Amino acid sequence: MAPPSLAGLFQIGIDILNTLRDGKTQSVIARTGDAYNEVSEADGVEWWQHVGFASRPPKASKNSACQGVVIRDSGHDACVASRDLRGQELAGLLEYGETCVYGAGTDAIGQCRSIWKRDGSITHYTTVGNKKGTTGIYSRVGPGADADTGLPDGFTWAAPWGTMKFDETGFHVLHKSGAQFHIGAIGGLPSPLDALTSYCSIQAGSFSTSSSGQSLGAGVTQPLALQPAVTAALAGLQAQITVLQAALAAHSITFNAFVDNQDDVTAKSNVKATSTAISVAATGGAAAGIAAVVAANLVMPANTQSAG
After folding, report:
1. The pLDDT value given to residue 288
2. DSSP string, 77-121
3. Domain range holding 23?
4. Strands 122-127 and 180-185, sheet pairing
5. Is 243 domain-assigned?
6. pLDDT digit string (tens) for 26-84?
């Protein structure tokens, strides 16, 4: 007696014509059949997947469709496995132990994917517009250089508008405009320069900072909130210099008049020259003080309050 045949219980490679969500349970259900001949066989086929993973295949066309392994039952059918050869290019040539998760989009031409490689790297990749042939956008973390792509270790973000990199050399940001930011370590310098162990470099066409406290270089932080007191002190200094200038000028006039009444011509000439030099120096000092006050008011920001 021949054993009972189980062939009718399984459908291997049947086309998935469509998937949708059940109106009541919100579970994914499928319609199966023959895509090429446009023949539908079953509706409401349960879409079984691994726990923690959910996906739906791209739409079927006459020449291409996702395929499934369906267990048939009189009450309901269940698709327990599936494959779609249209996404094979996205997965690439996987090696032993490697994994790719991708989303091919409605028409099976999307490019987004995540790849776990044998070298320990994880790459999330897509393209501009999620279209084939456009510029790639990706983020990658890896413990070493990839044997196939040559991509370096660390964290890498790359896009048409710039790149970011965080690895053993430091943190590097480069925007397509040319603006860039770099921090990292310094090593190998001779003494006493070996005390310099790190660096920070910022390059841009325009750079500004705003804070209630700011320190540039070594030393105690100076709060910019004291800016009014600083400018007031400079203004007071300017006023004192101006008074001193006027006093010295008046003194020079009086002193020169006194000297003119003396008999020694040479002595008078020497004393008057000295007095005139003092007056000129006072005038120059006053001008320098005024310039310093003007410059300070131009440099110091009008708003010295911290944001927040």
Report:
1. 63
2. -EEEEEE-GGGHHHH-S--TT-EEEEE-TTTT---EEEEE-TTS-
3. 10-83
4. unpaired
5. yes
6. 999 999 999 999 999 999 999 999 999 999 999 999 889 999 999 998 778 999 999 99
